[in-house]
């Protein structure tokens, strides 16, 4: 085990690198597989000192469900934003929301911030450096409380279940 | 035969839909009032539009070559990962420069309103708000 | 049908790039211009992919990939410059 973790300090990253290499060359031959494996082993070996330790995934099935929900939300959010843009009668109510975080790990906070940016009507504009709140700009929202409640129920609680329990 | 007609219709729909989304996103960027509202259009609508176009192209070449083509998926994935990161950095830069926001915006973030003890970027007055001093120049200016 | 769809989408993307150019020229602040340039990169990826469909060739995808990466890196670099006054500290 110790020997294995010396050669693969970040196993998930190695797998992703191999898949990306195979997608990049767009083919599955033995030579490309060998070259991809070499790169997938050597790149993490040279760079693993710069990576943060990643939290363990506690519940993989919930992660898949979360990804599907986010993909659907991306499509709905695009339609919503497009409708807001082309409809001149609709009055927009932009609002800055300070979102208090309950997540602790930097990795999950990054994931949450990126999810917020891609889903309905909100963009993360700042992560406070003390890691206790996010600053979110919403394009069309009633009150800050609604935005906070929606994000907490829809995205933060699943992330907390998946990674931090 | 009918399968090809259906596939052609699907590809056409994806292409036109994607181009419409990209167009609307750029239109939103050109027509909104303040910077923070302009940030929304390109981040969501344009990214989804390009995703649609790339998936349409993927289906087209997959049908033409009779084998799955996956390279476009890589570009789509990369765009969807990089769009929120660049939006976040742009928003952060805008907060740092304390850009004006529309008057109807609710809420007052401390990054814009509270100007205590942080080194503020000083714009050159003759260029408007567009240029920022480097740190060295700022220190020289404060020494004077 | 596909030819017509290609023509329409090329026209739409072209108009989107015109809007981006407008914001790039008249943008009142620096982040506006960076945002316009970033969107222009993304739209040019669409333009290149559509051109590849039009000419029926797959040669242009590497170019699209390179533009995607360079666009992202340059946006991050300019934002970093605006935030810190320096790119590499």
Structure description:
The complex is a heterotrimer of chains A (165), B (144) and C (89). Chain A has 165 residues and is mainly alpha-helical. Chain A is built from six helices and three strands. Chain A has helices at 2-7, 11-25, 30-47, 60-86, 106-118, 144-164, and strands at 95-100, 122-127, 133-138. Chain A has a three-stranded antiparallel β-sheet with strand order 1-3-2, with helices on one face. Chain A starts with a helix and ends with a helix. Chain B has 144 residues and is mainly α. Chain B has a single domain (2-102), classed as Helix Hairpins. The termini of chain B are far apart. Chain C has one domain: Helix Hairpins (Orthogonal Bundle). Helices cover 84% and strands 0% of the residues of chain C. Chain C contains three helices and no strands. The longest helix of chain C has 26 residues, at 30-55. Chain C is flat. Chains in contact: A-B, B-C.
Features of this protein?
heterotrimer, A: 165 residues, mainly alpha, 6 helices, 3 strands, 11% strand, B: 144 residues, Helix Hairpins, 69% helix, 0% strand, elongated
Question: Care to give the gist of this entry?
Answer:
The complex is a heterotrimer of chains A (165), B (144) and C (89). With 165 residues, chain A is mainly α.
Strand order of the largest sheet of chain A: 1-3-2
- Share of residues in helices of chain C: over 70%
Please give the largest β-sheet of chain C. Answer: none
Helix content of chain A: 55-70%
- Percent of residues in β-strands of chain C: under 5%
Q: What is the count of structural domains of chain A?
A: 2
Distance between the termini of chain A: 26 Å
In N-to-C order, the SSE pattern of chain C is: HHH
By CATH, the topology of chain C is Helix Hairpins
Number of strands of chain A: 3
């Amino acid at each position: 085990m110790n020997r294995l973790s010396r050669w693969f300090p970040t196993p998930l990253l190695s797998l992703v690198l191999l898949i990306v290499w195979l997608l990049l060359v767009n083919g599955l031959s033995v030579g490309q597989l060998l070259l991809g494996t070499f790169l997938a082993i050597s790149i993490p070996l040279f760079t693993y000192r710069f990576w943060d330790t990643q939290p363990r995934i506690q519940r993989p099935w919930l992660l898949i469900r979360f990804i599907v929900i986010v993909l659907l939300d991306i499509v709905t959010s695009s339609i919503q934003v497009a409708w807001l843009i082309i409809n001149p009668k609709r009055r927009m109510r932009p609002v800055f929301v300070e979102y208090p975080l309950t997540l602790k790990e930097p990795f999950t906070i990054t994931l949450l911030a990126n999810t917020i940016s891609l889903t309905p009507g909100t963009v993360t504009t700042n992560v406070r450096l003390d890691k206790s709140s996010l600053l979110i700009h919403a394009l069309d929202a009633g009150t800050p409380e609604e935005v906070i409640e929606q994000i907490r129920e829809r995205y933060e609680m699943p992330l907390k279940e998946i990674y931090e329990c | 035969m009918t399968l090809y007609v259906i596939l052609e219709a699907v590809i056409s729909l994806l292409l036109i839909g994607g181009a419409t989304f990209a167009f609307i996103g750029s239109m939103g960027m050109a027509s909104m009032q303040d910077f923070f509202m302009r940030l929304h259009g390109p981040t969501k609508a344009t990214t989804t539009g390009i995703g649609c176009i790339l998936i349409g192209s993927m289906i087209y070449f997959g049908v033409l070559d009779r084998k799955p083509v996956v390279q476009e998926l890589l570009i789509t994935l990369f765009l969807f990962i990089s769009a929120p990161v660049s939006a976040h950095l742009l928003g952060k830069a805008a907060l740092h420069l304390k850009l004006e926001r529309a008057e109807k915006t609710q809420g007052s973030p401390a990054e814009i309103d509270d100007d205590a003890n942080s080194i503020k970027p000083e714009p050159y007055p003759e260029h408007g708000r567009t240029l920022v001093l480097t740190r060295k120049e700022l220190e020289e200016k404060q020494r004077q | 049908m596909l030819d017509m769809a290609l023509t329409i989408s090329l026209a739409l993307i072209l108009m989107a790039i015109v809007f981006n150019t407008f914001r790039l020229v008249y943008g009142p602040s620096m982040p506006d211009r960076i945002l316009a340039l970033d969107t222009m990169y993304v739209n040019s990826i669409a333009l290149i992919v559509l051109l590849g469909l039009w000419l029926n060739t797959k040669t242009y995808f590497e170019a699209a990939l390179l533009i995607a990466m360079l666009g992202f890196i340059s946006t991050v670099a300019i934002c970093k410059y605006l935030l810190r006054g320096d790119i590499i500290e």
